[in-house]
Amino acid sequence: MTNKLKPALIGGVVTGILSVIPIVSSCCCLWAIAGGALACFLYIKDSPTPVSTTEGATVGAMSGAVGGVIYFIIGLPIALFFGVAQMEEAFRRSGVEIPLAGTALALLSALMVIIIILVCSTLGGLVGVPIFEKRKGTINTPPPPQDFGGGPGTGPGPGGSYGAGL
Question: Are 24 and 82 contacting, i.e. CB atoms less than 8 angstroms apart?
């Protein structure tokens, strides 16, 4: 079995870093899908056997988990420092009353982004397998049925000889 951790770490770092860069982060879902697909590509490249879509989804989800942790460590402090006051002001101007304020609002929004990253990275891993897996052969197929002889008249007859039963 090939190691899934290294591709997941690389894909997750790409996802996490691109998801916290201020202007680039508006394409958060795209970066998560790309990070999951990258992790899937790296896993397929090192795998000696054809990779199933389940394995691709697993590597993508692992990549999303790593990206989510990076987003939480880097993105949440940025949101707390720059974005909380702006979010509260935008809600006040629009006339929306929300029971959460300040840090709780930033934590809830970060949790939602982490879930989105996890789901999109899993989708990236699922989509990556049909795109990048070019090896022939099916995965875990049962062996073909065995042929234990032909039809009637090909086995030994009543006297133990092969023939028409003379």
Answer: no
Question: How does pLDDT run across 10-65, given as a tens digit for each residue?
Answer: 999 999 999 888 788 788 889 999 999 999 999 999 888 888 999 999 999 999 99
Three-state DSSP class for residue 97: coil
* Count of helix runs (H) and strand runs (E) in the chain: 6, 0
Distance between CA atoms of residues 129 and 40, nearest Å: 7
Helix residue ranges, H only, 21-102: 28-46, 53-70, 76-78, 84-94
Phi, psi (rounded to 5 degrees) for 146: -85, 145
Rounded CA gap, 44 and 119, in Å? 20
Helices 5-20 and 103-132, packing angle to 10 deg? 130
CB 32 within 8 A of CB 67: yes
pLDDT digits (tens, 9 = 90+) for 95-130: 777 766 667 777 888 899 899 999 999 999 999 999
Among 78-87, 126-135, 149-158, top mean pLDDT goes to 126-135
Question: Do residues 33 and 120 make contact, with C-beta atoms less than 8 angstroms apart?
Answer: yes
Name the DSSP letter for residue 1.
Answer: -
